[in-house]
Specification:
The chain is an alpha+beta fold. The chain contains 13 helices and eight strands.
Amino acid sequence: MNRTPPPSGPEPLPLDTDPAVYVALHDALDEGAADVALGEREREVRSVTRRIVAEEVAPRAATVDREHAFVHESYQALAAAGLAGLLVPAEYGGTDDTHVAYALAMEEIAAGCGATSLVYMTQMHTAYPLLLAGTSAVVEQYVPGLADGSVYGSLAVTEPAAGSDASSMRTTATPCKDGAGYTLSGSKTFITTGDRSDVVVCFATLDPGLGRRGITAFAVDGASSGLSRSRPFDKMGMHGSTTAEVHLDETPVPATHRLGDEGSGWSIVVRAVTKSRISAAAQGVGLARGAYAHALAALHRAHGPDLPPGVAAEMADLRGRVLQARLVLLGVARQVDRGEADGGAIGLMKQTCTDLGWSVAVAAARVLGRTGDLADLGVERYLRDAKVTQIYDGTNEVQRLLVARDTAQRVKEALR
C-alpha cells in the first residue's frame, strides 16, 4: 500500500547555513542610534565576532542544541580569533578592551548561539576573581589558558540551600593546622561547565555563624582530590552548555590559592556581579535579536519582501524593543568603563534586557503562527534559551528589589 510521506517541514533558513547571508542580515539590522557612540575598536570587535559567529558558531547551533553536545568547537573558534580575553590584560593573553566591546561581543555570540555565549561568559566570570584577588602565580597558572581556550573554568557560588542569598552558604573552608592551606567540604549546584572545568573559583565560609564576614574565595584545581562532579542536568534550553553539581570532600587547597584575605569573598562576589550582569544583559539583547532575525527571515521567505500589514507592524514593534534594550546595555556598559555605574543601574540593565530577551522571543514565535515552534526555523530555541537568563546572575525578582531600593534612596536624598 502506497502511503504519502508526512511533510518534512520548512528547510533550515540560509541565515543558519550561509555565513554571507548571516552577516548581511545582521549588518542590515544594526541601528545607527546605538552605534553612534561606539569607538573604532569596539566596531572592529563586533565585526570580527559577527564573522566568526557566522562561520563557526551559528551553523552548529541547531545541532548542538538537538544533540546536547558541548560547544567546544564553537568556543575554540572564538578563542582562536582572540575574542576570549577581551577584559583580560595583555600580559595574560588578553586584549584589555572596554566593557562596551565585551557587551557587543556577548550580544553577537548570543544572537548566533545562546549556549556558546554561556560558555564564553563563564570563562570571563572565572578569570575576573582570579585577576581581582589572586596571587601572581595563580593568575599566571590559569588566566592565560582561560583567555586562549586551553582551560575551562567554573564559578561556584550557588548551593542547594543557598541561592540568591549567597551569605547563607554552608560549604566550609577549614584551615590546616600547619598553615599550608585549607580543606573545602560541601556542594555547589547549577555550576556552568562544572562537569569539565580545569579550575573552579569556589566560595566557602570559614564559619557559617559569621555570615558574609566568613566567606572566602579559592581557586580549586579541577584535578584536586576530593573534588567530584555530577552528570550534567537536563535543561529546557542552553543544551550546548553543561550545568552540573560540584562536590568537595575535604578537598585540599594551598594557601597560595586563596583569593584575597580571609573573609573577603563577599566583596569579590559583589564586584564580580558587575561583569556577570553585563554578560546576562548582553545575552538578553542577543537572544532577542536572534529570535527577531530568524522570524524576519522566515516571514520574508513565506511572504516576500512586503509583509502583511499586521505582521509588519508587529515586527516593527520588536525592532524598536530590541533597540531600546541595546541602548540600555551599551549605556550602562559605558558607565562601567567610566566607573560611574551603581548597583541600581546594573540591576536595571540586567532585569530590562533579560526580560526583553524572553518577551521578544515569545512574540517572535507567536508572529510565525503555526510554524513558530518548529525547530528548523530556530525561533523556539531562542525562546528556550532566553528563559534562564531571567534566573541566573541574580534572579530578576532580586533585581527589582535592588532597583526599588535604589529608587527609594534617590528619592530620599532628593527630597530631604
